[in-house]
Amino acid sequence: MQAWVIGNWKQNPATNHDVNALLNDLLAVTDAQADTTPATSRCQLMVAPSYIHLAAVSARLKGSTIQCAAQDISQHSASTGAYTGDCSAQQVADAGATWTILGHSERRQYHKESHDTLIKKLTHAFAQNLGVVFCIGETQTQYDDQQTLNVINDQLSVLKDLLTQQPELLSSLSERLIVAYEPVWAIGTGKVPTVEEVSKTHQYIKQTIASFAKTVDNMTVLYGGSVNASNADSFAADAMIDGALVGGASLKAESFLAIANAFSQTHA
Questions:
Q1: Is 254 a catalytic residue?
Q2: Active site residue 182
Q3: What's the whole-model pTM score?
């Protein structure tokens, strides 16, 4: 099963100059490897820049082995409309994105994204042929109260309800959907769950999705939450962990590629 390592740049880098410098560093390595060790055969790379840099980044990455994703899309319309500040699925696809991140904990927390909001966004994404990296995960309080699996079950019910409404999506779900488990308490904090904890949670996620998506044999599930070059090897070694959604460590080519290399080694 192919691994994925995805860099969520969030509201970074600050300038076009910094974006180009990061891309130069990434492409210098991946282009050099392409002829002898095709990255896509072992570990697929993807980056998710901010809206303001999306078109430029996707243009730079065209023809490379690195894919490009948006960090979000509008819930209101798949194409156009009077929604100031929003970008639709059609617009981000036109800008060159082939995927979008949805349901990130920062969107859930700061923008109060609900169950129904996420169903609308998923619907719009799939309507415009965008793949979706769907984020789930529990807070520190929920983790301390041993509610992790209950929270995940509730968050995955979005997918279950979507498939109930649109069963035609089921046949292509495994190619168009990646789930990213990101415990909120581990994002950017330096706190990291054990590999055993993550592995058991990923197993639960895969089993839960299989329970309502019968034709999906093995959903791709990534781990995110303070993943870095130092701990990537331990996560990559576990068969239940199919890659990583990376935050801060994706802003330096060296650390991002080190994480990708760790998963490349285990998925060779």
A1: no
A2: yes
A3: 0.96
